[in-house]
């Protein structure tokens, strides 16, 4: 034991190192070991979740196309007052930079980017590849306008200037059916173009309805599995898990076979006389098809969390309640139901979040009335190549889910959600 004046005695080990230092070293070693053990998981989350989400958030405001492909034109338009059609110098820069992009094979990227905000701009710019061959030299303005009159319209240049900003909120405005007018004010899109807000509302409504349907159908199943003997409950669990052994695409396609006008269900209803041959019910390529297919596919995700919680509820409590004179109905709602609510919360949240981002099933069986916002996101990612708009819609959807998650935590409490 070593004692220093004015301090507590300090234990010294045989090797002369204070016990406190050795304990601190051992604690650091444990923390490093623990970190190394979870490092692969952290790396996985970083590269498969955090970085993609961050990239999506950045793309929703990033607008580098014009700055990268036509930097001189962007710089010149930045000094333009926007009141009259630009002068000869601007048209010369336009000619030179479009010629350079034609040579580099990037003229289509500029055309597509401008076309997002100016209908017909793609054909106008792409045709420059052919029409600019007729322009021998300066002055450029009159020759370019002669070849393509739309270059002489003030609106064309105002929109090009708008889409040339390196960062923009236009994608978010477009995602909620709004945009900028030529004066830079936020205005609503024409009524025939207002589709995204309706799709967001429909997506949330379908997700909530699917969650409710899976709860109504899944609660009795989970209750039956949790209260039957193991020999029967194991068989029921296998039946619940059986759909996971089949491809999602196959399961969705099977619903097309079942629900189509000349499908199995309609044939059965005609055979038993429930409907006439001419009165076959349209159950596919509409909202009904989406609801039926999504409910069946997502049902196991509701059943399993509820079952895992119900399995922990002692059945002796139910027997004790009935032995004290309570009816089975009263026993269920006073004893079993309150203890199963955490499983309902877990299953409901899981099904809702999965429904919000569902894509394959609405795409195959939804038709026009059964499409969800995820289908539009996929369209802009794969077909229109408007990644900024797709990222903005994805960001809004993520924010909506986070808000609903926060509301769930405030109302129910996330601590009350259990998986058994």
Helix-strand layout with pairing:
Elements: H1 19-59, H2 65-69, H3 71-78, H4 88-104, H5 107-115, H6 121-126, H7 128-131, H8 141-147, H9 154-162, H10 170-175, E1 178-180, E2 186-188, H11 196-227, H12 230-241, H13 248-259, H14 264-271, H15 287-310, H16 315-323, H17 328-356, H18 360-365, H19 373-382, H20 387-411
Antiparallel strand pairs: 1-2
Descriptive notes:
The protein is an all-alpha fold and 420 residues long. The chain has three domains: 1-59, no CATH class; 65-168, no CATH class; 196-416, MetI-like (MetI-like fold, Orthogonal Bundle), CATH 1.10.3720. It has helices at 19-59, 65-69, 71-78, 88-104, 107-115, 121-126, 128-131, 141-147, 154-162, 170-175, 196-227, 230-241, 248-259, 264-271, 287-310, 315-323, 328-356, 360-365, 373-382, 387-411; strands at 178-180, 186-188. α15 crosses α17 and α16 runs antiparallel to α17. The two termini are 51 Å apart.
**Major β-sheet strand ordering:** 1-2
Count of alpha/pi helices:
20
Strand content: under 5%
**In CATH's first tier, which class of the largest domain applies?**
Mainly Alpha
CATH architecture of the largest domain: Orthogonal Bundle
| Order of H and E elements | HHHHHHHHHHEEHHHHHHHHHH
């Amino acid at each position: 034991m070593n004692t220093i004046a004015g301090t507590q005695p300090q234990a010294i080990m045989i090797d002369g190192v204070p016990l406190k230092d050795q304990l601190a070293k051992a604690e650091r070693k444990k923390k490093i070991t623990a970190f190394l053990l979870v490092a692969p998981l952290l790396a996985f989350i970083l590269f498969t979740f955090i970085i993609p989400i961050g990239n999506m958030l950045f793309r929703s405001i990033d607008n580098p196309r014009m700055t990268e492909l036509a930097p001189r034109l962007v710089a010149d338009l930045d000094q333009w007052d926007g009141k009259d059609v630009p002068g000869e110098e601007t048209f010369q820069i336009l000619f030179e930079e479009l010629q350079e992009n034609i040579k580099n094979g990037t003229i289509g990227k500029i055309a597509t980017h401008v076309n997002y905000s100016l209908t017909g701009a793609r054909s106008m710019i792409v045709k420059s590849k052919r029409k600019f061959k007729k322009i021998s030299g300066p002055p450029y303005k009159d020759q370019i306008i002669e070849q393509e009159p739309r270059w002489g319209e003030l609106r064309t240049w105002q929109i090009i200037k708008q889409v040339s900003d390196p960062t923009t909120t236009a994608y978010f405005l477009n995602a909620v059916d709004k945009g900028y007018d030529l004066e830079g004010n936020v205005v609503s899109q024409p009524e025939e173009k207002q589709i995204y807000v309706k799709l967001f509302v429909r997506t949330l409504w379908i997700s909530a309805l699917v969650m409710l349907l899976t709860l109504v159908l899944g609660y009795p199943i989970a209750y039956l599995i949790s209260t039957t003997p193991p020999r029967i409950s194991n068989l029921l669990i296998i039946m619940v898990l059986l759909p996971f052994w089949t491809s999602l695409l196959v399961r969705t396609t099977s619903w097309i076979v079942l629900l189509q006008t000349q499908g199995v269900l309609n044939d059965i209803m005609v055979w038993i006389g429930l409907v006439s041959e001419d009165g076959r019910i349209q159950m596919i390529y509409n909202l009904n098809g989406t609801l039926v297919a999504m409910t069946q596919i997502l049902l196991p995700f509701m059943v399993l969390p509820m079952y895992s919680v119900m399995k922990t509820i002692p059945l002796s409590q139910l027997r004790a309640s009935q032995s004290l004179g309570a009816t089975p109905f009263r026993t269920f709602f006073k004893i079993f139901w309150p203890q199963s609510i955490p499983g309902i919360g877990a299953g409901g949240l899981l099904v809702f979040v999965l429904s919000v981002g569902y894509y394959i099933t609405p795409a195959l069986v939804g038709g026009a009335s059964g499409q969800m916002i995820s289908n539009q996101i996929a369209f802009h990612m794969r077909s229109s190549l408007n990644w900024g708009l797709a990222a903005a819609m994805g960001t809004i959807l993520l924010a909506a889910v986070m808000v609903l998650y926060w509301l769930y935590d405030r109302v129910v409490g996330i601590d009350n959600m259990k998986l058994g």
